Every structure is written in structure tokens, then in C-alpha cells.
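Need C-alpha cells for this chain, all 452 residues.
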Amino acid sequence: MNRFVTLGAMITTLCTITATTNVSAKDARSIALGGAVIANGNGAHGVLSNPASMMQMHRRGETTHVLLGFSGEARADSDLVDTVTDSANETIFDDLEDEIENLNSQSITCNPFTANDDTICIADTDPISVLSDRILNILDVLDGETVEGHLQTDLGIAFTHTNKPYSVNLSVSGTFSGTSDIPEGDRVYVGQFAEILEGDLTFGEVNRDEQPDFITFDPNLGTVDVVLPDENDPVTGEPVLNSSGQAAALIRVQLGISLARTLNVAGYKVDMGITPKISSLRAADVSANVQTELDETSRSIQDRFDDSENTESSFTVDLGFSTDLPTLPVQVAAVVRNLVPESIETENGFEFETTPQLIVGAAYQQGKLNLTGDLALNGAKVDNFDTQKIGIGVEYGTQKYAIRAGIAFDAERDEDNTAFTVGFGLGILQVGARISEVESTEISAQLSYSFK
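Here are the C-alpha cells for all 452 residues:
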């Protein structure tokens, strides 16, 4: 019984791993413009979107670009976030454990020969009913919900003063996900405490014709027999609690080196860039269920998570192209991201995958005004998260100041697939955010500058 609290701790652990990734570059300007930047890359962060953009920077007379950035995204249901962050729920499973233990040691005090249905047999059982009702609500919120998250930091520098510009970018990212499954039987178990023990326990409830499945009353002997959470159902022989969950995490340390040059293709000047990327991957996952955690001899979730860890190295490459239309002030571009698929399996067989994606885009520049649009032509996975983005953005300003806004649509999101994006640039500071709901937010801030 001492580990009944693990039901709550396990699920809370799985569901508070919040922070996901998408296929577009995780930088403030890209996020603010709805992800639409491959035809209009600026600075070292623009190289992450399309390495061919270094040739545009070269023609603008820019020489050196530096970047230090952070980005994060979280996807989770708002009720789930409220539930797992509510301080009132921190000890709720401990409290229920104490109340069940107390009930199991109680004696029925009413006389079965003289009592009527309203006679109180055990006084003040309402606390266990209230706790059980609250836990039922928590289980309803947690059931089947998945929370996902992605955190990333970037350090980059690009040199565009030569005819063959190059860039180096180092990033460290963490991708996390957690999900839980609450079977109906667990709700029935907790629900009987909520229903029967509301207020005081009366003789009518004790002497009912149909006894509850998990609480047996014997008014003649004056006993209460409770099926404890770590016991089996007396009818089916199966464990009374079967809630389960799974959590997985991937840490990626990636080094990318970008090169660019201009080619002459059928009389047109086409910028081309390539970014080989080498990564060190570290992945782990854990599955847990209530019965395992109630077993005093079972190994801890943390130990099992550590045992599943696997490390590998991987390689992939991005290819980017861009060119100006001959009669319009429009730049068009295409990028193939993660041309070589990547994957890593944990020791338990859980797999993280990254697959190729082709994106096309265009940008219209008129003075300080810039209009951009990107379209992903296929769905892809990036560290296991599906994404296929369409984005449009508008930017007004200069290197010293800029305001940005856009709309981002992700066809692979089940919820909150359309969002407004906003951001600004003020000297070296760049900020961008994707906002659909509070529980599904992406934000990035970075320090970056381009020197001439």
C-alpha cells in the first residue's frame, strides 16, 4: 500500500514532460513569419532554414553573422496542464492511501437488529468520497492524453565575405513525449469509494442487497473489508488497478557545416547550399503500470528508464536552392531537409525517426516590406513528430528594427493546427512566438547580428 501514491506520481511524471519539434528552423524570425523563410534567409539563423541564402547575404555585402538562440514548444491539453500543475493535487494520492487504510481498520458501530436505513454505522466517511471524486476527475483528464515537447539551443557563425560562404552551427536539443492509459476498471474502483462513502456511511448502504465489488460490509460481525489497490479483484482474479503510461526522450547534439555557391544553370544564376549534419543521439524510454509500481520489489521508473538508454551517431544533409525571377522582385527557393533518414531505437525497441521533406517557398521584397510563403510538399517526421507546414509571413523594417507576423498551418497536427505568429527584431534581439492556445505554444528568443 505504501506505493499507491505511485499511481499519481507515475502519471504526473509522464504528463509533465512538456516542451515538440517541427521541421522548420527553430529560430525567432522563422517562427514569427509562420515558418516561411527559405526564400528570405537572414543571418546565421537564415542558414539553418536554407544554406543557399548565404549567397544573398554575400551580394548584400554582409560579411559575418553570429547567433545565440533558444527555442521551446509545448503541446498539451489545457485541462491536463492545469491538473498536473495544481498544488492541491500534490498529495492527493497519499491522502487517499491514508483514508483507505483508515477505512479498512474501521468497525461498523450500528446494531443490525435495531438500526434503520438512516442509522449511521461509520461517521464522517466524506473525506474519502471527496478525494475519490477528485481523483476520478484527474483520471478523466489524463486518460489517453499525450504531451510533447521540444527545447533547443543554437550557437552559430556564418562568413559570407568570400565567393564561397560557409557557416558552422552547433545545436543541443531535447525532445520528449509522454502518454497515459486509464482503463474503465480503475474508474469503477475509485468511483465506488466516491459514491458509497459520501457523507456518513448509513445502515441502508451497509445492508444493501447488492454489495459493491471492492468494499464488503458485514453488519453482523461489524467489519469492513476493502480490496486494497495492490490486491486482485475477488471475482475476476485480475489486478484492481491497471493504469499505465509511457514516456520517451531523445537528446540530440548536432554539428552542421554549411557551404554555398552560385551556379549557372541554362543562363540563370541559381544559388545552391548544402549542410552536412552529424549528430550524437541519446534515447531512452520507459513503460510503467500501477501494479508494477505497487510491487515493493520492482525497480524504480528511473532505473528502468536508465537501462533503456541507447546512444548512436547519425548523419544527414540539407540541400537548398534559390533564384530570382527575371521579371519580378521575387525570390523562389526549395529545400530538401534531412535527405538521409535517421533513426535510433532504445534498448526497449522504442524508435525515434527523422525522414526527408521537400519545401518550396517564395519571397517578395519592396523596400522595407517583405512578404514570404513556404509550403511543405510532403509530411515528415523530425525526431518522431509528424509535421507538414504551410506558412505565410509579413515583415516590415530594417536590421535595426523589424515587426513580423504570419499564419502557420500544420497538416499533421490533430489539434491547434492553425496559429497566428508574431515577433519583432530590435538590434541584436530577435523574438518570435506561435500562439494557438496556451497549452500549444512555441516561442524563441535569440541574440544575432550581421556585420557589413
